[in-house]
Design brief:
seven-stranded parallel β-sheet; Rossmann fold; single chain; alpha/beta
Length: 272
């Protein structure tokens, strides 16, 4: 008789802060993490879906914090909530991001600064605040970047700059903190993901309700774009002890080669 290996929870009793986890990729990561035995700090700006998610997971497994990460002391408060609720901190997932279109002509300096504050400076601040506690647990940081870090879409200039900077942050700290603090820092760069926010943005841009079913092969060779749950499945490896001492790595989750692939501005194929 074939004996199957006993399944174990890959994140059993690990405490993880996940920013931007009331919806989208962050929500999927939170759900997957809890299913693997973790306790999580849910964070976001929209209280209603956050409360619903905590209720789904249970108060013994999740706690909610609603706050703009650009506020002074926000990072320290997130860390304090994790310690107060669960007594330690094993990992941080920097997922929260602001996605707004701009190009060289429309990107003002205040706009660029606002994107950098959320997408690059806030992750740095949270790593800095969490570091003493991650050092104690030999923990991990997982940054959620974007394939736009390499070249970027023409209409996502500021966003692409911010994700390029986040990638450099990951490479730099992933080396330094692994050597000096035994804290691993890695990054996932997702491609195009069908999140609630992406659906909302496309509707606001005038795309048809069924745009995701009309994707040309240049965007989606498989006939569809990625789902948040697929990003979450990959995230668990980097948050678990399975990834061992691996640090300073950036992994692309996309269905086509991405270096040099720069989609055109005209996406009218989805409209109408």
């Amino acid at each position: 008789m074939l004996t199957l290996p006993k399944l174990t929870m890959r994140l059993k009793n690990k405490v993880i802060i996940i920013t931007g986890s009331c919806t989208g990729i962050g929500k999927a990561i939170a759900r997957k993490a809890v299913s693997e035995g973790a306790k999580v700090v849910i964070h976001g700006l929209d209280e209603a879906p956050g409360k619903e998610l905590v209720s789904e997971m249970g108060n013994d497994r999740a706690v909610l914090h609603i706050e703009d990460l650009t506020r002074e002391g926000a990072a320290e408060r997130l860390v304090a909530i994790a310690l107060q609720a669960f007594g330690k901190l094993d990992a941080v997932v920097n997922n929260a991001a602001l996605v707004k279109g701009s190009d060289i002509h429309s990107t003002t300096l205040p706009f660029l600064r606002s994107i950098l504050e959320i997408n690059t400076i806030a992750p740095f601040s949270l790593i800095q605040a969490a570091l003493p506690h991650l050092t104690e647990t030999r923990g991990a940081v997982l940054n959620i970047g974007s394939v736009n870090a390499y070249c970027g879409e023409p209409n996502l200039l500021a966003y692409s700059i911010s994700k390029g900077a986040l990638q450099t942050l990951t490479r730099n700290l992933g080396d330094t903190l692994n050597r000096e603090n035994h804290v691993r820092v890695n990054q996932i760069n997702p491609g195009w993901v069908l999140t609630e926010n992406e659906i909302r943005i496309k509707r606001e841009e005038g795309f048809s309700d069924d745009w995701e079913t009309k994707l040309p092969k240049v965007y989606a060779p498989a006939g569809r774009i990625l789902r948040p749950e697929e990003i979450a499945a990959a995230a668990i490896f980097w948050l678990s002890d399975e990834s061992g001492p691996i640090s300073a790595q950036v992994v692309e989750l996309e269905q086509h080669p991405l270096i040099g692939r720069n989609p055109p501005k005209d996406m009218s194929v989805f409209e109408g």
